[in-house]
Predict the 3D structure of the following.
Amino acid sequence: MTDIQDLTNGRWPDLLSHFCALTPEQLSDKHQPCPLCGGKDRYRFDDRDGSGSWFCNQCGGRDHMGGAGSGLDLLMRCNNWTFTEATARIRSYLNVPTPPPTAGAEAVWHYSDTFLVARFPGKNIRPSPGPATAGNSKHHQPLAHSSTSQISFLAQRIRSSL
Ligand SMILES: [Zn+2]
């Protein structure tokens, strides 16, 4: 994973005004109401070393019980975004391509614009044994069918990480 911290260092005032509509006032190191939880003077934006850091003695900190947070933390919280969503939006805003989910794959099959299957090294793919069909050996599950279900499992994983 490309380090999102390197990408965003020094750019938090821009990112936070763009994504969270923070005002220049809210991006200054001055005690004031918190953009997340209000109040009167519980919040300030100190942007330490360009990290977008801020402080709220009501909702900052790891447990949101008061303390410091990072710019990414603030951006995720003001939009209710997950880490993955926030970093994807930041990359797109900064014009940094998101690494494809197939990075590191040893083989990729493109079935359509929205569906692909990739094989990653170290994954042990082999046809799973078909269901036991004792006494009915003529109708055992064909191997091809088993491997298809293994492969679509991988495809599912890739799609869910998009
Ligand atoms: Zn707060």
User: Anything to note?
Assistant: The chain has two domains: 4-93, 107-160.
